[in-house]
Amino acid sequence: MVLKKWTMRIFNTLTGKKDELVKPEGGQIRLFVCGPTVYDYSHIGHARTYVVFDTFVRWLRHVNLPVFYLQNITNVDDRIIVRAKAENKNPIQLADFFYGAYLKDMKALGIESVDKYAPATDFMPDIVKQVKTLLKKDFAYEIRNDGIYFDVMKFPDYGKLSGRTAAQAEDSVSRIDESINKKSKADFVLWKFPKTAIPKTFLGRFKKFIITPDGEPAWRTELGWGRPGWHIEDTAISERYFGPQYDIHGGGIDIKFPHHEAEIAQQESASGKKPFVKIWMHAGHLTINGRKMSKSLGNFVTIRDALQKYSSDVLRWFFLSAHYRTPVDYSPESVEQIKTVYNRTMVFIEKLGRTAAIKAEKNNAPKLNTAELIRKASEEFGNAINDDFNTPLALASLLDFIGKFQERIWELAPTETIEIKKFLEKSFNILGIGFKSETIPQNVRKLAEERELCRGRKQFIQSDALREKIRVLGYEVDDTPEGPFVYKE
After folding, report:
1. Kind of pairing between the strands at 17-20 and 9-12
2. How many alpha carbons fall within 13 Å on the CB side of residue 227?
């Protein structure tokens, strides 16, 4: 399925158009995606974003384009501290716990493409270095007993990603740093000083890291005791691995402003190089029953809770059934619809395996031009993905391909069924979607055998009664030219 020509185009939030993803000569595509702030279990909004980028990387690697996928973890932040105080816990230990839970959730979702997870607390020297650079270049200023802030007015391009200006920052609810002493309401914190003085007794006992009497973490650095702001963590991490410029930055649309805007301002000011990132990709919002997720509304669904109801394959199909840039609404009805489609696809693939096994000894001649149909389907699938990562169109192309064989599956020759099955499994695997064959319980198999005997004797009333018993047990039976085919509903 490898395309002969590299022609992928991605909608770039920065330019407002589809830009070609240029394959670097002898190098890797460098991708950075904003990870979660680990103060709670991750929710399905996170899942949607990270499934999108996991699938995106799977595709790039499939077409032989090397990718280094870096994802930060915000493990020091106001929200972590607030929760830790409420639960009388150490904020770093709290973050470590939820970071571990996040990694388990990613594994459960089949997300395996990330090369490096980077917790912010592992990069304090890089953060301090970048803050010092901004101070030296006069893009930052210090407020005594408060922190070090970025001076937005010194960066004329502020707002070029989101279309929002510095003057509009005050009406944002997106984690704008509050301080009555800031030069501008849009200015954001780079380094936060402790709210209370560090006791002298601490100074000899702790050389690098402490929890202050206020319950906040603080690091001993050249900037003084303190902790990083949210935005500076990401640019310090990306600069460590990628340098001052790289290829793709991804994340949810909700953090385009002010977070991504701040990243651009920081890195381009520090390095003097533009653009900081060539292509910006933003995944759309996820709502629940048409409403924004909120704990106060009781509609906050964690990844682990969603996986209790649906398999990771069904959830991935659901997320990928909408274009990554569009909003998607999570509801029981919408996911159940996807589950039905997924199950029907799984049954079709199982039937392909069944008919291939049954007819293996027969020398059936091919009935259709299967090779040509596979070639066309492969092309449609690849073209959809290469056109701004259009996964819903790619999935539709696979379902359309299945529809060409649905009614004639039992007529196909073994070689045809094997090739069709191989193509479908490979295509879905690129999307991270797998199909596990169900083991039919002995009692269900026995009922199906009894029903087949009744059908042979034309005892249709008894046959229908046995079919109903099979359905009650959660299984269905199809009558085929090759005998009964039993599958889980």
Report:
1. antiparallel
2. 22
For 291, phi then psi, to 5°, come to -125, 150
Per-residue pLDDT of the chain (489 residues; tens, 9 = 90+): 444 455 899 999 999 999 999 887 778 999 999 999 999 999 999 999 999 999 999 999 999 999 999 999 999 999 999 999 999 999 999 999 999 999 999 999 999 999 999 999 999 999 999 999 999 999 999 999 999 999 999 999 999 999 986 555 444 434 556 778 899 989 999 999 998 888 776 666 556 789 998 899 999 999 999 999 999 999 999 999 999 999 999 999 999 999 999 999 999 999 999 999 999 999 999 999 888 776 656 678 999 999 999 999 999 999 999 999 999 999 999 999 999 999 999 999 998 988 766 665 555 656 678 999 999 999 999 999 999 999 999 999 999 999 999 888 888 888 889 999 999 999 999 999 999 877 889 998 899 889 989 999 999 999 999 999 999 998 888 888 778 888 887
Q: Give 251's contacts (C-beta < 8 A, 6+ positions apart).
A: 33, 34, 49, 259, 260, 281, 282, 283
Residue pair 306/423 in contact by the 8 Å Cβ criterion: no
How far apart (Å, rounded) are the C-alpha atoms in residues 461 and 458? 9
Q: What does the alpha-carbon distance between residue 163 and residue 182 come to, in Å, rounded to a whole number?
A: 23
The β-bridge partners of 476 are: 487
Contact 384, 320 (CB under 8 A): no
- CA 290, CA 328: separation in Å to the nearest integer? 9
Which residue has 């000899």 as its token pair?
204
User: Residues for the chain: how many in total?
Assistant: 489
What DSSP element (H or E) covers 379? helix 370-386
Name every residue whose Cβ is closer than 8 Å to that of residue 208 and which is 6 or more positions away in sequence: 124, 219, 220
Give the strands of the sheet with 286-288, arranged side by side.
291-292, 286-288, 328-330
> Cβ distance 260 to 163 under 8 Å?
no
> What is the separation of C-alpha 320 from the centre of its chain, rounded to a whole number of angstroms?
10
Nearest-Å Rg of the Cα atoms of the chain is: 28
Contact between residue 260 and residue 162 where contact means Cβ atoms under 8 Å apart:
yes
What single string gives the DSSP state of each residue in 46-100?
HHHHHHHHHHHHHHHHHTT--EEEEEEEB-SSHHHHHHHHHTT--HHHHHHHHHH
Cα separation values, 346 from 259, 349, 351, 420, 436, Å: 41, 5, 9, 13, 8
Rounded Cα–Cα distance for residues 420 and 409 (Å): 10
Enter the tokens of residue 78: 């106001």
Phi/psi of residue 488, nearest 5 degrees: -80, 135
* Residue with tokens 């381009």, as numbered in its chain: 268
User: What are the residues whose beta carbons fall under 8 Å from the beta carbon of 210, sequence distance 6 or more?
Assistant: 198, 202, 217, 218, 220, 225
